[in-house]
Design goal:
This protein has about 550 residues and is an alpha/beta fold. It contains 16 helices and 19 strands. About 40% of the residues lie in helices and about 15% in strands. It starts with a strand and ends with a helix. Bound molecules: flavin-adenine dinucleotide (FAD).
């Protein structure tokens, strides 16, 4: 079945929906999303959006903090652009109705939270369910726009490119073009051919590649895998950010304990309830970068053989905790933990993919007509590690940037002659009767990645991971055309692909940097030296 649209957006998080709102006046926008529209990482975001609003803050300070976190690999021009656009994009959200908290002393001002590695209070938030508030307002807005349709339970299988359809490009130097995507309607099992002058990957992260993750089930790296298969560059995939503090409880699935707790004074305690961060970062302690805190916890757990460490905010007044962190307070209470009077058991978990599909400052990828935005993209903002709360900001700003370029290129791309695209051919594919084939491989990949390609890596472990992934990749490849595609099978294929890419990227990096730490190439220098060098480098470039 062939469907035509002007703009095909794959994904309904902050990136996909805020872009849909901006493209709506230009033509027909189709948003496909593989579950319900609010099954997104966006919906889970607690802390907020980093943005310069404070009287003691400046774009330069936000820029510097982002560059420090990025450990020398962030692109300064992109950092600068994203930081500077922040306030305008936040005002747009306020105009749409997002109920960001106001400063209790001065309601004209926004209430600003503090998080690790931020030198100022700059986290704009809606209590501690900021993402949910944004997701709801964007979802409601999109429902009111007649030119936007959202197709739930539709999962993208692969991108359609000119070279694949024609079997070749006009010449070796020609740029390939994206023509749309094959999309499986999960309800009917039919794979549709969606054609669009402009296709946008807004598929979020890849946390489900790891056994322990804060990410929702939808985060299976689809955009990265599809773009890679279509021939677009992907980069920085070794830089997986591990969040130091996910709730450790047998019944809790992926519940994050926001960084904002440490921003408000929460201490990390070992199994004997002794603070330990001073050993690892005497200056910043709990407010050190996420990679440092996650590694410190990993070391404590490996040394003690215990299952978890503890995060304690109970020294703050109970009414403050309940007011500032209602979501975390209520959720922990549901599991029998009263955070106003006792410490919270926590473990680190895969949280954010700093790398992704390489884009320029307008979200354009290597393929004409193909954009990437949000967590799936690698714009150069995060470098080797993401500064907390910079990702919602990036999603918003880059969606705006994509809309600007789409506005320019859409008429020309639309006017190109159409190419006949054959429908998806299921050939002799049969129903897969044994779901165990998928769930077993899924489980193997996630354990392998956690144990061998996790917070602390080594050349040997990476080699073993690659060896063990190869037979799984071959098996998936062998069976790909034998069975009718299902959501689980599509996800497994993407997950395996992204796992392999992470291992390849990690193996190539012969140093420890940002979110990538390997025992074979430990950090050569201490934090203060690295920070001064990054600052010096950035100053020299700006002069
Ligand atoms: C628990 C948690 C807390 C966080 N807190 C913060 C925070 O406080 N501040 C901050 O800045 N960042 C935070 N982050 C990170 C931030 O939420 C994400 O990086 C951001 O929301 C990503 O937005 P996105 O639009 O790129 O992707 P998402 O919001 O994840 O949306 C991805 C969309 O793509 C769809 N999709 C995926 N694959 C396919 C496919 N093949 N076909 C069709 N649809 C597909 C999904 O169904 C989903 O709709 C947090 C993340 C988590 C998990």
């Amino acid at each position: 079945m062939e469907d035509k649209t002007d703009f095909l957006i794959i994904g309904s998080g902050i990136a996909g929906l805020s872009l849909a709102v901006k493209l709506a006046p230009l033509g027909h926008v189709t948003v496909v999303t593989k579950k319900s529209r609010s099954d997104t990482a966006t919906n889970l975001a607690q802390g907020g959006v980093a943005c310069v609003f404070g009287p003691d803050d400046s774009f330069d300070l936000h820029r510097q903090d982002t560059l420090f976190a990025g450990d020398g690999l962030s692109h300064e021009d992109i950092v600068d652009m994203i930081v500077r656009q922040g306030p305008d994009r936040i005002r747009e959200l306020i105009d749409l109705g997002v109920p960001f908290n106001r400063d209790p002393e001065d309601p004209e001002r926004l209430d600003l939270g503090k998080e690790g590695e931020h030198s100022r209070r700059r986290i704009v938030h809606a209590e501690d369910f900021t993402g949910q508030a944004i997701q709801k307002v964007l979802g409601d807005k999109v429902s009111q726009l007649s030119s936007v349709e959202v197709l739930e339970d539709h999962i993208a299988v692969d991108l359609i490119t000119e070279s694949k359809i024609k079997g070749h490009l006009p010449d070796i130097t020609a740029r390939d073009r994206c023509l749309g995507a094959y999309i499986l309607d999960v309800g009917t099992g039919v794979i549709h051919t969606f054609l669009a002058p402009i296709t946008v990957l807004a598929t979020g992260g890849a946390g489900k590649v790891y056994l322990y993750t804060s990410n929702p089930d939808v985060a299976t790296g689809a955009g990265i895998a599809m773009a890679y298969r279509a021939g677009a560059r992907v980069a920085n995939l070794e830089f997986v950010q591990f969040h130091p503090t996910c709730l450790y409880h047998l019944e809790a699935k992926n519940f994050l304990i926001s960084e904002a707790l440490r921003g408000e004074g929460a201490r990390l305690l070992d199994s004997e309830f002794r603070p330990f961060m001073e050993k690892y970062d005497p200056e910043r302690k709990e407010l050190a970068g996420r990679d440092i805190v996650a590694r410190a916890i990993d070391t404590e757990l490996k040394n003690s053989g215990k299952e978890c460490v503890y995060l304690d905010i109970s020294h703050r007044p109970a009414d403050f905790i309940q007011r500032r962190f209602p979501n975390i307070y209520r959720t922990c209470l549901q599991y029998g933990i009263d955070i106003t009077s006792e410490p919270i058991p926590v473990v680190p978990a895969a949280h954010y993919m700093c790398g992704g599909v390489v884009t320029n400052r307008y979200g354009e990828t290597d393929l004409e007509g193909l954009f990437a935005v949000g967590e799936t993209a690698c714009t150069g903002l995060h470098g080797a590690n993401r500064l907390a709360s910079n990702s919602l900001l990036e999603g918003l700003v880059m969606a705006h940037q994509v809309s600007l370029r789409a506005r320019e290129t859409f008429p020309e791309l639309r006017s190109r002659g159409s190419i006949h695209v054959p429908p998806w051919d299921i050939g002799g594919a049969v129903d897969m009767k044994e779901a165990i084939l998928i769930s077993h491989n899924w489980d193997v990949i996630r354990r392998l990645m956690w144990n061998y390609v996790g917070i602390v890596r080594s050349t040997k472990r990476l080699g073993l991971a690659r060896e063990r992934l190869l037979p799984i990749l071959n098996e998936i490849q062998r069976h790909y055309w034998d069975y009718k595609l299902t959501r689980d099978f599509i996800e497994l294929r993407n997950l395996a692909q992204v796992a392999e890419l992470i291992v390849m990227a990690a193996s190539q990096r012969k140093e420890s940097r940002g979110g990538h730490f390997t025992l074979d190439y430990p950090y050569k220098d201490d934090w203060n030296w690295r920070r001064d060098t990054i600052l010096q480098k950035s100053k020299t470039r700006c002069e």
